[in-house]
Amino acid sequence: MIGRIVRFFGDAEQAKRRRWLLAATLLAVFVADFFVAREHVVFFWDAISGWAALFGFLSCVAIIFISKALGRQGRLMRREDYYD
Length: 84
Known about the structure:
With 84 residues, this protein is mainly α. The chain has one domain (2-73). 60% of the residues lie in helices and 0% in strands. The chain has helices spanning 2-10, 15-32, 51-73. The relative contact order is 0.06. The model has no long low-confidence stretch (mean pLDDT 83).
């Protein structure tokens, strides 16, 4: 069982299926958010369906871009042979 999972995520031939699975999962989470009862919201954006999924996705994308910018322009990254 574990071997099948490792091959699925490690095999380049499975990339198309992995992307489809990711897209289907994201769509399922987004659609499920429309069925949540929103009776007691604190902020107005909490009442918007799909807001949590969109906010989470945009936050992850922002973290990736900020990390890459800090690594390149902030001089935090080193060459692979830095310690050699």
